[in-house]
Amino acid sequence: MSLPDVFARICEVLNNPVSTAQEAAQVIGMDQSLSARLLRLVNSAFYGFPTKVDTLSRAVTIVGSRQLTTLALGISVVSMFRDLPPGLTDVKSVWKHSVACGLAASALAGCAACAPESGERLFVAGLLHDVGRLVMYRNLPGFSAEALRMARRDKTLVRTAELRVFGFDHAALGQALLAEWRFPESLALAVGHHHGPGRQGWVPDTAIVHVADVVVNAMRMGSSGEYYVPPLSPDAFALLGVPAKTLGLVVDKVDRQVEAVLSVFLPDEAHPA
After folding, report:
1. Which of 33, 39, 66, 70 has the most beta carbons within 10 angstroms of its beta carbon?
2. Sorting pLDDT into bands at 50, 70 and 90, what band is 34?
3. Which residues form a coiled coil (predicted)?
4. How far apart are CA 203 and CA 93, in angstroms?
5. Nearby residues of 37 by Cβ (< 8 Å), 6 or more positions away
């Protein structure tokens, strides 16, 4: 799978440590649809700015060039998966789950005293954490349906069934895909290890996306096809260094934001509960 040229250019800007804010705005501005959706996200409940941000240059100034280009990458991928084969899962529910996971990851980043600029990166990591499953659904619907049936029949996680059917799971596929698209390594790793640590153990980004995914699954905020709530790793949660009551605050924040932010990605759609 390949991304359009404009998205490759966005990756180049994001991966270049000396790229300027003007270059970021120029590259994003090459795609009018992407620019419009990005401005809608900047003006949504995700930020809650008191006044409207009406130009890309102003958005870059307020949000930051690296943060904005990271958001542009996330939006670009969502646009590729607006439709899925019928009968597997509901696309609106999938993206509600993904948006909620992104919002939860961003909120957890703030609570865990991560660097200020990590909120957008972790939002996109949460947003795209199940992109590998969407590729499975779109390209191999028959095998995907078999994995979903197996998970329900055996009362197990869909990820476990994927390993049996495909020999790999959606997390590994998502990581490989983001690496192929030249996404920042931290994003690819967070997607690839949101169900379990890599060889170096849990790191903050992967731990945050893991906890966000478990919380959103537990609250049934949309679904990517999972029937059961994945187990929460105590080590991942401990790494965040936040009290358990923080999860309730995160859930409240996501619940307030999710519909408004989802409307940026799926406009004019009725959103499932």
Report:
1. 70
2. confident
3. none
4. 29
5. 75, 79, 264, 265
Q: Which of 51-55, 180-184, 249-253 has the lowest mean pLDDT?
A: 180-184
Kindly state the tokens that stand for 118. Answer: 């990590």
Q: 3-class SS at 205?
A: helix
Contact call for residues 178 and 128 (beta carbons, < 8 A): yes
Q: What tokens does 144 get?
A: 């995907």
226-231 long-range contacts, Cβ below 8 Å, gap at least 24?
A: 226/151, 226/157, 226/158, 227/151, 227/152, 227/155, 227/158, 228/151, 228/155, 228/156, 228/157, 230/157, 230/159, 230/195
Give the whole-angstrom CA distance, residue 168 versus residue 156: 16
Encoded tokens for 62 = 């307020």
Q: Which CATH number fits domain 83-273: 3.50.50.60, 3.40.50.880, 1.10.10.1760, 1.10.3210.10?
A: 1.10.3210.10
DSSP character string of 241-253: T--THHHHHHHHH
Name 236's Cβ contacts closer than 8 Å, sequence gap at least 6: 197, 202, 206, 207, 210, 211
Q: What pLDDT sits at residue 3?
A: 61
Instruction: Dump pLDDT digits (tens) for 82-128.
Output: 788 888 888 899 999 999 999 999 999 988 767 666 889 999 999 99
Per-domain residue ranges of the chain: 1-80, 83-273
